[in-house]
Specification:
16 helices, 436 residues, 4-stranded antiparallel beta sheet, 3 domains, Alpha-Beta Plaits, binds (R)-mevalonate, alpha+beta, 18% strand, 3-hydroxy-3-methylglutaryl-coenzyme A Reductase, Chain A, domain 2
């Protein structure tokens, strides 16, 4: 937890100044940031121990979402993402949510499913009865496969038998439900599957097929809600109440149309994935689980929906999130460990709630922009800053040059170079940006 996640004007400071402000707000030491973010947090020798055929490393921007308050706790939440405006949008929307008391979140226990596929089963009912009769023994075998997890308070919790297809498919799958505590759990769950498979096949009088976790971790869901007062949603052109109508209308669009739901969910995952990546977690697993969950009714649907409650906008997001605060990449990636330190996150459940809050904020920001000015205006303003930097603008020049090229509707490096001459006093301000 941070002293505060509100750092007004943060974007205007230099990188060094921002680091100092984050240290002050979170209690992280400046040297921790210096050390963890050198070389993008990972040197080539360490990377060589992660994966194969390494040539080097590949960095992405590491930013922080501000104004985030979850269950009454302020959190500065690291985000790793290449897309301009995602971090700013999450921070702005979190500020609006804060005006209504912040995000309220809860999570399931960190339960994952280990799947053991058995095929060539001639008597599925008999197989099921024999497996369920041995439930206690199978759960004990599962625990023996992950003694470290059991010592940390986790382990096998339940077992279920499912029939797949028809009798003619002769296939069953056994799920062992495992509490992973603060681990993401993939390796643990795979060890459980391999630890019990032979005995399950023996009981089923069938053959062992796949032994692997399921990424549809629907027993490990996180839910986050927010209540945003109309007045903070207003834009220059629209009052807050009209913005609520626009956002509810956007939500209904996604609820009624899978084509829109996919884009709506992409906007949520802009925030979720950036936190997942910053904290060294497996974003492909998170994506697979989120989209499978979005399709759980048979129709692909939005993960977050928005409604009006009087003069408040109410949003609710639910998705499965298998995230770890121990093990995996965190053992070796200093940047990922730093991200957890900055956000003050120790448990996988707190991490899931923070990631989901940033996801809901990202969705709110996108829908508000789409329902009012359209998405391009904000994007262009941020793009203009990058173009100004590319043209050589530094310090205060960046904002001024960006403003000029946006006003001139000519967001190109050439226009930015001409604007820079004006800003730095080397050209007459009367000179048109269009041409010189
Ligand atoms: C762009 O990265 C995300 C959006 O398309 C999301 C949305 O349409 O809701 C803006």
């Amino acid at each position: 937890m941070s002293k505060t996640s509100q750092l007004p004007g943060f974007y205007k400071f230099s990188v060094a100044e921002r680091r100092a402000l984050v240290c002050e707000a979170t209690g992280v030491e400046p040297i921790e940031i210096e050390r963890a973010l050198v070389d993008g947090g990972l040197d080539a020798e360490t990377a060589d121990k992660f994966v194969e055929n390494v040539l080097g490393t590949y960095s992405l921007p590491f930013g922080v979402a501000l104004n985030v308050r979850v269950n009454g706790k302020d959190r500065v939440v690291p985000m790793v993402v290449e897309e301009p405006s995602v971090v700013a949008a999450a921070s702005n929307a979190s500020k609006m949510v804060r005006a209504g008391g912040g995000f309220v979140a809860d999570t399931d226990e960190p339960l994952m499913v280990s799947q053991v596929q058995i095929f060539d089963v001639t008597d599925r009912e008999g197989a099921k009865a024999r497996i369920l009769a041995e439930r206690a023994d199978l759960l004990a075998r599962a625990d023996r496969a992950v003694p470290g997890l059991v010592a940390r308070g986790g382990g096998a919790r339940d077992l279920e038998v499912r029939f797949l297809g028809t009798e003619a498919d002769r296939m069953i799958v056994v799920h062992i439900v495992v509490d992973c505590r603060d681990a993401m759990g993939a390796n643990l769950i795979n060890s459980v599957a391999e630890g019990v498979a032979d005995r399950v096949a023996e009981l089923a009088q069938g053959k062992v097929g796949l032994r692997i976790l399921s990424n549809l971790c629907d027993r490990r869901c996180v839910r986050v809600t927010c209540r945003v007062p109309a007045k903070v949603l207003a834009t220059e052109a629209m009052d807050g109440s009209a913005v609520i109508d626009g956002i509810v209308n956007a939500s209904r669009f996604a609820e009624l149309d899978p084509y829109r739901a996919a884009t709506h969910n992409k906007g949520i995952m802009n925030g979720v994935d950036a936190v997942v990546l910053a904290t060294g977690n497996d974003w492909r697993a998170v994506e697979a689980g989120a989209h499978a969950y979005a399709a759980k009714t048979g129709t692909y649907s939005p993960l977050a929906v928005w409604r009006r409650d009087g003069e408040f906008l109410v949003g609710r997001l639910e998705l499965p999130l298998a995230l770890g605060t121990v093990g995996g990449t965190l053992r070796v990636h200093p940047g990922a460990r730093l991200a957890l330190r900055i956000a003050g996150l120790e448990s996988s459940q707190d991490l899931a709630m923070a990631a989901a809050a940033v996801g809901l904020a990202s969705n709110l920001a996108a829908l508000r922009a789409l329902a009012t000015d359209g998405i391009q205006r904000g994007h262009m303003a941020l793009h203009a800053r990058a173009v100004a930097v590319a043209a050589g603008a530094v310090g205060n020049e960046v904002e001024r040059v960006a403003h000029m090229i946006v006003e001139a509707r000519d967001i190109t490096v050439e226009a930015a170079k001409r604007a820079l001459l004006v800003v730095s006093g080397q050209a007459d301000s009367a000179v048109s940006l269009d041409d010189t």
